[in-house]
């Protein structure tokens, strides 16, 4: 994994000083939401320009051997001023820190991390069923529905709902009074599955609505066409 902070500077000879230029971002991933959508949401939420390089399944086999852009032979990767960051979680945290969306102190970051890891555990279990090649489509549909209603899933959702409730009785976001990485990860992962997932958790449903209709994200989400999964 490559993780760094990079800035470009141009010398302003007339002023005798350097002016800081915004980084150039390029996101490399497939044309579905998957592991890269949190990155896209972070960029759109902050209004930061980036190149969304959507790579087709047909082109990927010939590109993955590019050790510069894809050091681990996998995606997503994020190029920052030509340097490459691997691993989606590392990318998410780097951008959240850069954009001021990773909490104001260690405790807030602790809450955010608990939300993200709990939801990551859930989606890994769900996707393992969805990708199970030993099941036919109907069996997969039933098995995925079972994951949404099983006791361990309800336990995870109850836990993050309690975290939400600690902050202004659940009327705002997981921490503070504005969206952070935790809220974006929550919105993305719960949006990858059937909306029935949150039926027993009205406080989480309300949070989902607040993120979906936030002024910063509404326009992007209204016109988003790439699917959650292939």
TrEMBL record:
**Which InterPro entries does the protein's record reference?**
Glutathione-S-Trfase_C-like, Glutathione-S-Trfase_C_sf, Glutathione_S-Trfase, Glutathione_S-Trfase_N, GST_C, GST_superfamily, Thioredoxin-like_sf
What organism is listed for this UniProt entry? Hydra vulgaris
User: What CDD domains does its record include?
Assistant: GST_C_Sigma_like, GST_N_Sigma_like
Entry-linked PANTHER family:
GLUTATHIONE S-TRANSFERASE
**Protein's UniProt name:** Glutathione S-transferase-like isoform X2
Every GST N-terminal domain range: 23-103
UniProt domain GST C-terminal: residue ranges: 105-230
